[in-house]
UniProtKB/TrEMBL annotation:
E.C. number: 2.7.1.107
Compartments where found: Cell inner membrane
Taxonomic lineage from the root: Bacteria, Pseudomonadati, Pseudomonadota, Gammaproteobacteria, Alteromonadales
Disordered, as annotated region: 1-20
One Gene Ontology CC term in the entry: plasma membrane
Membrane topology field: Multi-pass membrane protein
Annotated organism of origin: Shewanella frigidimarina (strain NCIMB 400)
PANTHER family named among the record's database cross-references: DIACYLGLYCEROL KINASE
Alphabetized UniProt keyword annotations: ATP-binding, Cell inner membrane, Cell membrane, Kinase, Lipid biosynthesis, Lipid metabolism, Magnesium, Membrane, Metal-binding, Nucleotide-binding, Phospholipid biosynthesis, Phospholipid metabolism, Transferase, Transmembrane, Transmembrane helix
Pfam families for this protein: DAGK_prokar (PF01219)
Note describing how the cofactor binds: Mn(2+), Zn(2+), Cd(2+) and Co(2+) support activity to lesser extents.
Name recorded for this polypeptide: Diacylglycerol kinase
Length: 147
């Protein structure tokens, strides 16, 4: 916010100029947080993003509905803790990929909804990332359980 003050720097001039400029749209002031407050603030945004994904993104919902029972199975199966962890991490990677895919789609759509070759390419590449993560998860599960 710009405050112009005349040569007499009384508080009245600052107040008047601030009030005059208050009607114009002001840029949002970013407050840097530190320590535990930064962590709490970051967690708030993290859970907002996950909540949005669970409510609005069908692919994420489907992958989450597979993740939950498969995670239970991975821990109940007669395999080592390291193998169980590998299975769960492979499933988590699919969810990570879906988060990235949706983020790319949202940003591309924010730029503009009209078709552009590069926008389509960005979405295709993000979708390929999800596909490859699913392929990787399937391979990990196959190797751990049947190989």
């Amino acid at each position: 916010m710009t405050i112009s003050v005349s040569s007499s720097t009384s508080d009245d001039n600052v107040t008047k100029n601030t009030a005059k400029n208050a009607t114009a749209k002001q840029p949002k002031i970013v407050v840097k947080r530190h320590g535990i407050m930064r962590l709490l603030y970051t967690c708030k945004h993290t859970f907002n993003g996950l909540k949005w994904m669970c409510r609005n993104e069908a692919a994420f919902q489907q992958e989450l509905m597979l993740f939950i029972p498969l995670t239970v199975f991975a821990y109940m199966a007669n395999i080592s803790a390291a193998q169980s962890a590998m299975l769960v991490l492979a499933l988590l990677f699919v969810l990570f990929a879906e988060l990235v895919n949706t983020a790319v789609e949202v940003v591309v759509d924010r730029i503009g909804l009209e078709f552009h070759e590069l926008s389509g390419l960005a979405k295709d590449i993000a979708s390929a990332f999800v596909f490859l993560s699913m392929l990787m998860a399937a391979i990990v599960w196959w190797v751990v359980l049947w190989a």
